[in-house]
């Protein structure tokens, strides 16, 4: 089955959906609210499941070329610098770290220039058994399928489910930065009480870092955000201070962490939600972007193997909602264990990590992460993308 699809939202999930649908023969238009794409989120890591999803889109090798390997999940330290866990001496790192703009650019370059329209804000959506009609600030369009990939504050979700709960604040905030430095840095995560500092190399000479810490309320901002980071982790081990010194103030972003309560469905008739619009999650499993790319591949495969759009969307919902909602729940719990841990819980967690032999951790980690990382994407039929 092929047809015409409109994707609302030109982020990573929306672009991945457009790439996936075009690979299976669909005509696609992407409508993005912002007039020009800018840096959002600084950096991110992709685990093996997400890399397989990118490979299913035909972008596996290109994704490796614009990313860096990182052992961040296997290299954990205390603020003093003491190691709680060390990366294996052999083997390839399981994660690839990207500058977010590099991954976004890779997906956009996989599409013809006229597929993505910017500066378009969707204002209405109606559907019947045969088509979906959307209205927006530039026109009115009809399609066989509409995909809402417009983020945690999704207009599509609000139009479809006006009474569904909105995003919820998880009691912590984060600063994200990009440091330009010639020093060689390995990925790592430093665990303080009520806060963490994450390091990922994302390109030669460029390092992404993130500080997460507890917060009583969202929306609190400062004149000098970088100075606020320094104050909160003053005295922490090298190379943290070096990275902060090498970070231009304009490369620091301050965000509040929210997720989305479970929705009863990701689909309605000929409309599907994807990515953060459906299952926004905290960053504590590193799966936000990866799950949206998985969504895109599964959705395209379902459309290619079912006879009607509603049948395909029913199959998509059945596959994606349990996995993504479980992942979001696990991410929320993992974040809470670090951000909201009391002094005793923090000490016990650090002790347990330090006393676990590296060889044992190397055996346990694949079992713990297996349900998430071992996911295998469906094969997308190689349809001819329309010109």
TrEMBL record:
Gene3D superfamilies: FAD/NAD(P)-binding domain. Residues 5-330 form the FAD-binding domain. One of its GO terms (molecular function) is monooxygenase activity. PANTHER family: MONOOXYGENASE (PTHR13789), PUTATIVE (AFU_ORTHOLOGUE AFUA_6G14510)-RELATED (PTHR13789:SF309). This is 2-polyprenyl-6-methoxyphenol hydroxylase-like FAD-dependent oxidoreductase. The keyword Ligase does not apply. It holds the Pfam family FAD_binding_3. Signal peptide: none annotated. Keywords: Monooxygenase, Oxidoreductase. The keyword Repeat does not apply.
